[in-house]
Amino acid sequence: MEKTKKNSRHILRYVLLALLVVCAGALCGFSLSNTGQGLIQDAYGSSMELLKQNATKQVTLNGKSSGTLTYKETMNRSDAPVNRRSDNYGTYDVYADEDGNEYIFLLNSDTLCGYKAKDATDIMDYTGKAVTKDSARETADAYMQSVFGDGAQKYQFESIEVQSTVFYVDYCFYLNGAKTDDQVTLWIRTTDGAVSAWHAFNRGRYDGYANRNLSTSAAKAKLEEQIPLVKSPDYEIFDQYITKTDDGRLVMHYDIVHTEEGARKTHTYEAPLE
């Protein structure tokens, strides 16, 4: 099971790396170009890119002012347009500073959900690691405190892994003792210890839900009712977390793996929590 989790995380690393690097050009579902119109149509709905093209922001990140940030593009990570979702999570505005570093904000808001330095990853795969795992963890903890302030205490450390020249440090927000998909991942270069990128795409999404009556046991019972074989030795739940559907319902998401004729197959299932 642990190997499956790690393989899943490794795949996610490359997906997120591609997302943050590619957002400099492609827009993950949006096709935006200067058409001279105020609204640009795409497969997911309208993007107000042209109406924002002169927009600016300024933030303080890790104790330093970003200077003036200029709107660059909007990227979409959702299969549904914003007007068919209960909130804007899944769609983000990208702003850049004069050096080409990118800042990712929740659509039409000042909620900072990510950052990517222009040189987020090193080109060369150095054999010698200048930064240790312990020092990378200390850097990550301090950075979390700087960026999230008192809110950093809401996130629990999950894991730290190294791939090529980057340490990936994960933290997760727990709601009533259950993991959510409000996850923070920091990229720390092994060569100089710098935080070169981070993302928290669901930052703050579950604020205000602490007093809700959520039944994780009922969700598990629903899973076992719908997929009875999940209780057999050939099935295992290798990950589960709270997420939110497009229409605003809280559900428990299950990633399930089972062995069939020697091959491992994966399934997903979502059970209501309310």
Structural commentary:
This protein has 274 residues and is of the alpha+beta class. The chain contains four helices and 16 strands. It has helices spanning 2-22, 49-52, 133-148, 216-226; strands at 40-42, 45-47, 56-57, 60-61, 64-65, 69-76, 91-96, 102-106, 112-116, 155-163, 166-175, 178-189, 195-199, 235-244, 250-260, 263-272. The chain has a nine-stranded antiparallel beta sheet, sandwiched between helices. The chain has a three-stranded antiparallel beta sheet with strand order 14-15-16. A two-stranded antiparallel sheet has the order 1-2. Strand 7 (91-96) and strand 8 form a beta hairpin. The longest helix has 21 residues, at 2-22. The protein is globular. The two termini are 29 Å apart. Mean pLDDT is 82; it is low at 21-46.
Layout of SSEs?
Elements: H1 2-22, E1 40-42, E2 45-47, H2 49-52, E3 56-57, E4 60-61, E5 64-65, E6 69-76, E7 91-96, E8 102-106, E9 112-116, H3 133-148, E10 155-163, E11 166-175, E12 178-189, E13 195-199, H4 216-226, E14 235-244, E15 250-260, E16 263-272
Antiparallel strand pairs: 1-2, 3-6, 4-5, 6-7, 7-8, 8-9, 9-13, 10-11, 11-12, 12-13, 14-15, 15-16
